[in-house]
Amino acid sequence: MTGWPARPVIYEIDTAVWLGDLSRAAGQLVTLADVTGSDWDAITPDGANAVWLMGVWERSPAGLALTNANQELQASFREALPDLRPEDVIGSPYCVRRYVADDMFGGRSGLAAARAAHRRHAQTLRGPSVAERAHRVRPCGPHGNRTPIQAHERGRAATPLRRRRAQI
């Protein structure tokens, strides 16, 4: 017996966007270690059995370099976000360098704190999904074949990654 329902509901959170929103609201940098119980309650809908922290893994610097060097992508980013700043583009959450929690989100200790906090709220925080693991065999970078940009989401047209860091 695993403790999981036959059909679990897994709620996906874009980690960078969520922590960026929390950071702006707090007026200071918020990592996974700083997320409060009320923050978890606010983001997790009723009926969810787990939360998937999409993009929590360390991103590929090679993938980010390819993105930054691609003038067509940069133009599409500026079209979508006229106030785009270099720090807004942090790379694709699907262009993973290593499967360790990224330091920008609090690293390993931040992820461990998030798991503990989330367990206290009677839910389970899981690691990578099957889809994330599949990217191990198709890496981003100079010799990879993944485009370092987020694809469409829930039927919307493809959009560039938009990541805002807190202004501190």
Can you walk me through this structure?
The chain has 168 residues and is of the alpha/beta class. The chain has one domain. The strands form two sheets. A three-stranded parallel β-sheet has the order 1-2-5. Strands 3-4 form a two-stranded antiparallel sheet. The C terminus is likely disordered.
State the distance separating the first and last CA atoms.
47 Å
Beta-strand percent range: 5-15%
Strand element count? 5
- The ordered H/E elements are EHHEEHHEHEH
CA-based gyration radius: 16 Å
Number of DSSP helical runs: 6
The description of the largest β-sheet is: 3 strands, parallel
Number of domains: 1
How much helicity do the residues have?
25-40%
Name the features.
disordered C terminus; single chain; 6 helices; about 170 residues; alpha/beta; 3-stranded parallel β-sheet
Task: Describe the structure in brief.
This protein is α/β, with parallel strands linked by helices and 168 residues long. The chain contains 6 helices and 5 strands.
